[in-house]
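Hello forum,

I keep getting stuck at the same step: I have a sequence, I want structure tokens, and every attempt I make locally crashes halfway through. Rather than fight my setup again tonight, could one of you with a working pipeline run this one for me? It's a single chain of 497 residues.
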Amino acid sequence: MPFPRTSGILLHPTSLPSRFGVGDLGKPAYQFIDFLRESGQKLWQVLPLGPTGYGNSPYMCYSAMAGNPILISLDLLVEDGLLSADDIADFPHFPSEKVDFEAVFAYKLPLLQKASQNFVHHCPQKLQEEYQRFCAGAIYWLNDYALFMSLKTAHAGDSWHTWDLGIRHREPAAVGAWKLQLSEEINYHNFVQFIFFRQWSALKKYANENKIEIIGDIPIYVAGDSADVWAHPEIFCLDEETSLPSLVAGVPPDYFSNTGQLWGNPVYNWDNLQKTNFDWWIKRFEVMLEYVDIIRIDHFRGFEAYWAVPQGETTAINGEWVKAPGDELFEVLNEKLGKLSVMAEDLGIITPEVEALRDKFELPGMKILHFAFGGGTDNPYLPFNISRNSVIYTGTHDNDTTVGWFNQLGETEKQNVLDYLGCNGPDGINWDLIRLALSSVANQAIIPLQDIFGLGTIGRMNYPGKAEGNWEWRYQDKDFNPELTSRLKKLTQIYGR
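Reply #2:
Ran it on my machine without issues. Output:
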């Protein structure tokens, strides 16, 4: 659906400042919302909020519906009486400019265990009732997730396809026996999810009260080693004998890669999903819409056709395009959930069929200014070529910052940028592109916070294809100042956002 003319900031909560090594849902998150309000912004875009696995990528989570425990605010647990001030008085020295995920997990998870024990033994009745309501409302996914994570701990973190056949195939006797054995661990994971969504819901309420909408992110695929695939193997293409994916996701060779990208996620068994009237997808959207206002769908083109690669391939070369029933899925979603507030990530190999699917349901696509200045005047990312029903970005979490991007351009493309902008030099290129995004006809404009700060490559969030060292960037309190707020607010007002 088309959106009103607005603008906002892209920032994942892990990037917020905190003395505990990673951004969380406590006071700095509320202060960030205050900045959004004071600078005239209406949108806060976050990356997927799920519990991350190897590499800490929010796009490879143990659940498509659960929340990430490390985002829980320890200060808020103290306010709830689930930890004492002494419990968090002594904490390690964490780097302030990036997340050391291993150190954060080592520090925070034992404290969450302690809070869980305190909840069991000293929980006020009112909080206990809240917990029971949450568990009842999340029954579709929570029980499977809590058992799955408990089983992973019991199996030293090994992937579920290596477990004994009984529990791998969820045979009732095996499930019952493991539930008895792991009851304490299961209760811990239930508690952690309750606290995460309690804190997140309070933060979202504050955002909405300040007229800020939150854009959440749904990756089209889920991790193979996840509660979703273990609990619903029939809706994925898996090998019956090994439980490994028989077909995996990726994208074919293109201008950027001679071998394509092999992501490794299992692709969907769309035939089985159709037989259930897309029940799992309906539930996934329902859960998401409880906690965000707008949904961005990552790799939207996979709903029209997806690149499927046989298991065992080491590159994405030997795959094939397979049609997907995206039209039927979105018809059902609209029928069940009403007109959806959805944005389509439509970057990459986009065909007329993908555009037709996007446009049929009036979903705004993404336009990236970093992509606009190579080629000629027919470049689809140039502002004069885009439609109103679009979301324009300077760059995304997968791009370099605007300053880093500009500094690495060749001289010809640099000059193209400066000629288009009418600039005499690269001073303040980040603000030049911010102005260009805000002034465009696109209904929505989203700016990564790093571009507001004018950071170089040091502020980059992710390098696609790089396994480690991503998702670590954080800002510090001192990075904000009234001049930035005032400057962004003025541009926002000038361009009617």
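The CA atoms of residues 50 and 64 lie 6 Å apart. If your local run keeps crashing, start a new thread with the error log.
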